[in-house]
Amino acid sequence: MVPPMMQMSESQLMTRAAWLYYVGGLNQEATAGRMGLTRARVNKLLAQARDSGLVSITIDGRDVGLLPVENAIRQEFGLQFCIATPALSLTPADKADNPILAEFPLRAVGSAAAAHLRDALAAKPDLVVGTGWGRTLAQMSKHMAGVSAPRARFISLMGSLTANSSFNPFEVIHALAQASGAEGFFLPVPFIADSEADRDVLYSQQAVTRPLELARYADLALISVGELTESSLLRRQGMISSTELAELRAAGAVGDTNGIFFDASGYPVSHDLNSRTLAVGFEDLRRSFTVLLAAGTEKVEATEALLRSGVPKGLIIDGDTALMLAARLGLDHGGATGAA
User: Fold this and answer.
1) Whether 116 and 228 share a structural domain
2) In a domain, 339, yes or no
3) What is the rounded distance in angstroms from the CA atom of residue 205 to the CA atom of residue 327?
4) Distance (Å, rounded) from C-alpha 146 to C-alpha 54?
5) Which pLDDT score, from 0 to 100, does residue 33 have?
6) Average pLDDT over residues 75-92
7) Closest C-alpha to 56, from 151, 140, 149, 174
8) Average pLDDT over residues 212-238
9) Which residue from 225, 208, 224 is spatially nearest to 155, judged by alpha carbons?
10) CATH number at residue 299
11) Does residue 335 sit within a domain?
12) pTM of the entire structure?
């Protein structure tokens, strides 16, 4: 006779372990005993449940010591809100030595963004949500378990067929729609066209014009920001070349969002790539309620520049980057420190 737990799939075991531990209140030893598994096996199942997004943990972050910083940044850029996650004072050495710590800013901002999105969906069940791409948005999608929003619609704000990863727009939209029961729509085009003429042809296709119109008039737009370095996601994904990176820097670009490259004042630069990118533009993003997700101190320059564009109306940022941004700007934030 095969023991009952041995008949379950990995997903079923993961769900059972998560329910007993998080909802049932059993510790790992009691959960293991209840399931007839080893404690090490239960520990692995619980870790998988968190990483897969089956379990999303919400922490009341109102008392993390960064309220003065949030207020200073909000006032500086005329934002409607600024949310900073706890600061850990992480150094480059900390991140190099510990991959988990290196991912902390992404996870923290992703979790806070998911909480904001859940609130927005609760307030407007038929919300149209546009999303960009990147690791921060992918993290956000992992924290949407248990949300039911069948009347909502998620739409990608950019093309993505040149990227094959868990954080390209197609995958982010799919994860959000699957988690919430909402509809998901995509721009069925590449991230960057081969020429401006090719971009115009792609934009003219009926399969593109309909979802593009939905994206241009999204109620809520969630975007992330990227730095322009050899270690940036765009370069590591091979979406721009080293030569193009150097040309963009020479043109004054300091960062990008949705493949739109902008300078220190937040204006799109004059470069061939900006005329070939298939994405919702800054004017459309200004029309939506656009929230910028910024995770990682390496993005502080690009974050400041995009905030100066006036595109974002809200900001969700990790604590260390928030403190660095406030310091760059010389903002008076009441002596807040990096201690959370």
Assistant:
1) yes
2) no
3) 47
4) 8
5) 86
6) 90
7) 140
8) 91
9) 208
10) 3.40.50.1360
11) no
12) 0.81
